[in-house]
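Example record used in the benchmark description.
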Amino acid sequence: MVTAFGLPADAALLGGDQTLSDNLIAMAMNGIPAGYFALVLRDDRKYADEVETWQEVRRLYRYLWVIYGLGLGVFGIQRILRYLFGNLAGGPVGLADESWLANGLALLLIGLPIWLLAWQTVQRSLEEAAERESRLRLAVLYLFVLLGAWAALMAGGVVLAVLLRLALGERLSFGDIMGEIGGPLSMGIPMSILWTYHAHHLKRTLASLNEDAPREGARRLYRTLFSLPGLGATFLGTAALLTSLIDLALNVTGWAAVRVDIAQALAAILIGLPLWLTSWKPLQAEAWPGEVRAPKEAQERGERARRSITRRGYLYLVLFVGVVGGMATATHVLFLLIQRALGEKPPDFTQDTLNTLSLLVLFAVLLTYHLWVLRRDGQLSARVLQARQERFPVLVIDPGEGTIGEQTAREIKRQAPQVPLSVRPIKEGIAPEEREMFKAVVLSEKTAVEPPEALRLWLREFEGFRLVVPGEAKEAEGWIWLRGGRPSFRRAAARLGRAVRQLAEEGETSGSGGTSPWLIVAYVLAALFTLQIALIVLGMFMEALD
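Model output (structure tokens):
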């Protein structure tokens, strides 16, 4: 392509240090094994379609091609737009380089067909429920939406900063303006399209999820990943604005010099604050649904939100930043004050002190607000969990040998103090009408395998949970406990207490499933490949800002 534009071969973005014959040989040497392995995979597919691991790897393979083709296409569009905006700028500010156009067209002509073919294959596969509900699809859509949104908003911030500089009185010619915003726009436009297009598909994918909890979790993650950069941009913009105003008030710098900083700070606030509010308010409304007056379904949804790792991770991350930042700024303020008390007065003492104090106040506000949110979450969760435990009566059947019933009851009360607990010696029996009173029953291993006839009939009709713990040591003869061996009674009682608490609060116990190690390796390699694409996009954006 660069040759067609009359440019030297080294102007090519890729392979510019090789001759045409070198590139053709490289294509052939890579194409031959690629074609061979494609044929092997096609033959293997006849026998492996029903294997879950094969389906996962095939899905991963398709989405890697989607990422690769889309990355080339976006990169190509960015180069073409950079060339066009450079022509609009004209003059020495935006000297248009035809290599931008040549490389952009080459990337677009290669990437667009790859993306179209791979994406159509992915879309056709959505006829299968497993494809529609796969976590990999959600992850890829999240990647495209978030990369597109973040890059588009950053580019919009740069453009807004230039417009604010004009509003604040700075004189810029059309060429100067295009020179300032041409690069960000060349990146912002394709990334905005990427964001909009895949946000539509993400919305449809979330709506197709069968269960409420996964759908809520996916939307919660989506909003959190928008809320976090919005909060960061608002915080940094406010800090920069206060610093600029302090410098201006102290006559450290003139208006012409500080105008650019104020415009950039205001742009960060105007982009970040709406982004944070529009994302954080729905998160708060979900987690705090009017407390007691809310319907039971809303309260359950709020409890899932408050206990989610997404919300907790967000709050703990912000609190960590607030604590570390507050400690650092407070230490710097103390250093300045001690330095002044010892008789040394730096020429910029007042400026540094006021700037650091303003930053300390911002960290204090950030820390105080999110600490209050975290504590409020804990209070609401404690109230809900207490009510759940009170509605989960447990029956412990004591075989009458040793202190199994007593020790088990003690551990359950320690882990779940609000659970109504009844310890019943096995010889007393259980009335049939008591079957509906309990949500779970605890049995020793011997009682579970060899129950009395009355208890066996009672358990057969019991619809609650049955939890089994090891009994006395003499009962272990001839027993083989798989997956870790036979636990001691003390350890089993502790696990039992946790299991009862989880059943009362969440309706299930934590478990683990097996995953193919090779599938994990494939996902790690895919993540590294995706990270490389993301770094390339980031490099493109930083280059566009130059």
